[in-house]
Design a protein that fits this description.
Oligomer: heterodimer
Largest sheet of chain B: 6 strands, mixed
Number of helices of chain B: 10
Number of strands of chain B: 10
Structural class of chain A: mainly alpha
Largest interface: A-B, 18 and 27 residues
Radius of gyration of chain B: 18 Å
Largest sheet of chain A: 2 strands, antiparallel
CATH architecture of one domain in chain B: 3-Layer(aba) Sandwich
Helix content of chain A: over 70%
Radius of gyration of chain A: 19 Å
Order of helices and strands of chain A: HHHHEEHHHHHHHH
């Protein structure tokens, strides 16, 4: 049981990393807390389902189109709404949460609720790992999770766009003095974050079904990981994902599944009390003020 | 259009709420000219820098660069035209090593256009530029995170970043502040060299003695208004300037 718990805790941690990394990327670069993030996750899954079932497109093609569509919607949201309220945190949160709410509730209103709304696993098989059965989709999640994090690191450290992202993330005014267009970079950051939500959905959703309410759960999980890790810190997201991921699985195995949600919320409360800017947070001024 | 003028600031004004930070200020600068901008604290010097680079929007007036109006452009487009600036309070990317701070401007669209889309070895370019402003090549200071460097190196780094953008006009906001006399003495030849290359330089300074040695012309601001314009000797002989710095006798 212990080995099995470790294996599933590892998978759960990678799932949390995948869920949070896009939200964190957008916030880290543009300073925008995209509360429509969970809705983008669900929108992408529904979009894949619609393309597969209404337009009979192949699974992989549907996933690719959904990722691109979700990114385009993210860019559009920045250009039409966020650009006008950027820098006003409350307005950003209200605007993005409102958009997210509209997307999720629209799907519910249109009747997209039920277990028939699901995505198939990429490979339908399972393996025995150290005495524990693990299905191929979960193995794929771990492999893709590692690949995505490595690619993101290479992108931000070795490409001109990635460097521009890091420049804006560290100091927007300085980046402006290098001729970097901060609105263009912020648009790309929101689009890329939405794209990560879509990628996460395409590989995580096959483990269950698509429900509008899942959008709220994804947002809460992303927020929990980012708050604990420190908003804007990729390393923080990974560490926090593993902390919560392991804590949830061990609570589930040894205490009771109904306590797992309490673990995340308790972790947020403890971190906010002990280290308000998160484990690897950059917002030191917050701690100084407190 | 006067071809010899690189930048013309025409009757520019800025008010923040009820506070008039800059009022109808006009001046110009030629290629290769070093213009000093001085004035007591709160006289509007840094606001002028922010108005030229449009980090703040003018209430009225115009900024012309190469005869074209630029004060409707966003800051990144103004920088791409060939105007670079430094900040009074240094603003490096603290987590990155000093030479990596240079990589980001070396990837900028301005540099890309300037070198015809071929950047070459940016690490080498970064290290060369840092050496140009006084980072000793063999001391490995360039490889240390900017956050742990002393003020003197941070000012040099700020200067190197501004140079890296291949500017036609550099605006240096209190480059000498916080530096020792020896450090200023070592930076002055670097600034002189830039001017000799034909780069126009606007220096906002409180270190008047050092500025007057290298400035071709000086303008003096007080309460947001230009009160004098001329050589260092002329402006310091001006009664309004004396009153601004020393106060009037009751």
């Amino acid at each position: 049981m212990f080995t099995g718990t470790i294996i599933y805790a590892l998978i759960n941690s990678v799932i949390l990393t995948l869920i949070a990394i896009g939200f964190n990327l957008t916030f880290g670069i543009s300073g925008v807390a995209n509360f429509a993030y969970g809705a983008f996750y669900i929108l992408s899954a529904y979009s894949t389902w619609i393309m597969m079932h209404s337009f009979h497109l192949p699974y992989f093609v549907s996933v690719m189109i959904s990722i691109i569509l979700t990114m385009a919607l993210g860019a559009l949201m920045y250009q039409l709404v966020l650009k006008r309220v950027r820098g006003q945190a409350i307005s950003e949160v209200i605007a993005t949460f409102g958009i997210g709410l509209a997307i999720l509730e629209l799907f519910r209103y249109l009747g997209f609720v039920g277990f028939e709304y699901n995505l198939p696993p990429f490979i339908d098989s399972s393996y025995m790992i150290l005495g524990t059965y693990v299905d191929m989709q979960r193995i794929l999640i771990v492999v893709l999770g590692v690949i995505i994090v490595v690619l993101l690191w290479l992108f931000t450290h070795n490409t001109s766009l990635g460097l521009a992202f890091r420049g804006i993330a560290q100091d927007e005014r300085t980046a402006l003095t290098f001729g970097i267009d901060s609105d263009k970079i912020a648009t790309l950051a929101v689009a890329l974050g939405a794209g990560f939500a879509a990628i996460a959905a395409s590989i995580i959703i096959p483990l269950g079904s698509i429900f509008p309410s899942e959008g709220y759960d994804v947002l809460i999980k992303a927020l929990a990981v980012c708050i604990i890790g420190g908003l804007g810190s990729t390393g923080g997201v990974i560490v926090a994902s593993f902390l919560i991921g392991f804590a949830e699985r061990f609570t589930d195995s040894y205490i009771g599944s109904h306590w797992t949600m309490i673990v995340s919320l308790a972790a947020i409360l403890i971190v906010l009390v002990v280290k308000p800017s998160g484990l690897f947070g950059k917002q030191k001024e917050l701690e100084e003020r407190i | 259009m006067n071809q010899t003028k690189l930048l013309k600031v025409i009757n520019i004004s800025k008010s923040f709420g009820g506070v008039q930070a800059v009022r109808n200020v006009s001046f110009d600068i030629k290629p290769g000219e070093l213009l000093g901008v001085i004035g007591p604290n709160g006289s509007g010097k840094t606001t002028i820098v922010n108005l030229i680079t449009r980090f703040v929007k003018a209430t009225s007036g115009e900024v012309m660069f190469h005869g074209e109006k630029i004060n409707h452009l966003p800051p990144h487009k103004i920088i791409r035209l060939g105007i670079s600036r430094t900040f009074q309070m240094v603003r490096p990317f603290y987590k990155l090593p000093a030479y990596k701070n240079m990589i980001i401007p070396l990837y900028s669209p301005r540099v890309k256009n300037f070198v015809g889309g071929k950047y070459g070895d940016r690490d080498a370019m970064a290290l060369d530029l840092l050496e140009e402003v006084g980072f000793e090549r063999d001391s490995f200071v360039a490889y240390k995170p900017a956050g742990i460097l002393p003020q003197g190196y941070l000012k040099r780094l700020e200067l190197a970043k501004a140079i890296s953008l291949q500017p036609e006009l550099m605006i240096l906001d209190e480059l000498f502040s916080g530096l020792s006399l020896a450090e200023v003495a070592s930076i002055v030849p670097i600034v002189e060299k830039l001017r000799q290359k034909g780069i126009a330089i606007i220096m906002i300074e409180h270190r008047l003695k050092e500025l007057f040695k290298i400035a071709d012309r000086v303008i003096v601001l007080n309460y947001g208004e230009k009160i004098a314009d001329g050589s260092a000797k002329e402006v310091m002989a001006n009664d309004d300037v004396k009153n601004a710095y020393l106060g009037t006798e009751a």
